Write a sequence for this structure.
């Protein structure tokens, strides 16, 4: 009984962490996903481009970095040591995230 209660609490905490991360990222991605056309790219100056968002590793945990800072904006309560070596390698190199739905999909893949 205690084990199933602990598992339920852990699942709720993980879900809460993911949901909190999604709300925090609305500033980076906005509500609508619009592909960038080459015409739009040409008209956007270097200064007005949105910050790049990268999913990576910080202190052995899954983390989300915005801009060029070496410190993450969000650190998820998920240790990457349990992931397959290929996934850890991709995360150590950093995975560029281009939309909120892509981030949601990556987090679901890694954390499930």
């Amino acid at each position: 009984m205690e084990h199933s209660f602990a598992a339920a609490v852990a699942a709720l905490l993980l879900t809460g962490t993911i949901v909190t991360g999604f709300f925090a990222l609305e500033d980076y991605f906005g509500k609508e996903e619009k592909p960038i056309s080459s015409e739009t790219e040409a008209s956007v100056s270097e200064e007005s481009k949105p910050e790049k968002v990268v999913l990576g590793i910080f202190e052995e945990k899954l983390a989300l970095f915005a801009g060029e800072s070496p410190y993450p904006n969000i650190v998820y309560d998920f240790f990457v040591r349990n992931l397959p070596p290929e996934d850890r390698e991709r995360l150590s190199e950093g995975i560029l995230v281009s939309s909120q739905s892509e981030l949601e999909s990556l987090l679901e893949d890694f954390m499930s």
Notes: The mean pLDDT is 74. The chain has one domain: 2-111. Residues 2-111 form one domain. The first helix runs from residue 2 to 24.
